[in-house]
Amino acid sequence: MQTNDCLRRLRFILDLNDNRMIRVFAEGGLPVSRETVSCWLKKDEDEDFLPLADIDFSRFLNGLILLQRGPSDRPVPPPEKRLNNNAVFRKLKIAFNLDAEAILETLALADFRISKHELSAFFRKVGHRQYRKCKDQILRNFLKGLQIKHYRTRKQNPKT
């Protein structure tokens, strides 16, 4: 999946405003301006659209992990220069503190079902005989399930 598309979806899922987006990037070690974030969030056809580099999206995901799970004694991991869907999926799993059952439930919300064994193959190391590449459809359905899950949570617990 394209990094800009994932960023747009995560912004919507988490209901992040510009200041929170900037904070997430900063937590991951990348200070950014509101204009840069705005250009990353624009549609691909827009003349001001800026493609989001893998390393910068990796920093965003690292920042999201820190903000969602709280500070850690461990140092912030270095951002990956190249991201694939498996790495994005793994970072989202960590950020939202999801186990296999929770991920399967999230995918089921998007009417997408896979087995626990199929799921575990996405989190294996490249080169492992059970490793399986995570396709766009799976990551897209996971993000859709997260959106449904977070929407329901916000609807049940509206801000006062």
Furnish the topology, listing elements before pairings:
Layout: H1 3-14, H2 18-27, H3 34-41, H4 54-69, H5 85-95, H6 100-109, H7 116-122, H8 136-156
Helix pairs in contact: 1-8, 2-4, 4-5, 6-8
Question: Which key phrases capture this entry?
Answer:
single chain; mainly alpha; 2 domains
Any overview of this molecule?
The protein has 160 residues and is mostly helical. The protein has two domains: 1-83; 84-160. Helix content is 59%, strand content 0%. The chain has helices at residues 3-14, 18-27, 34-41, 54-69, 85-95, 100-109, 116-122, 136-156. Helix 1 (3-14) packs parallel to helix 8. The protein is globular and about 40 Å long. The relative contact order is 0.13. The mean pLDDT is 92.
Amino-to-carboxy terminus distance: 36 Å
Query: Would you tell me the structural class of the helices and strands?
Result: mainly alpha
Poorly predicted ranges (pLDDT <50, ≥5 residues)? Answer: none
β-sheet strand percentage: under 5%
Main sheet properties: none
The level of helicity is: 55-70%
The shape is globular
**Beta-strand segment tally:** 0
> How many helical stretches?
8
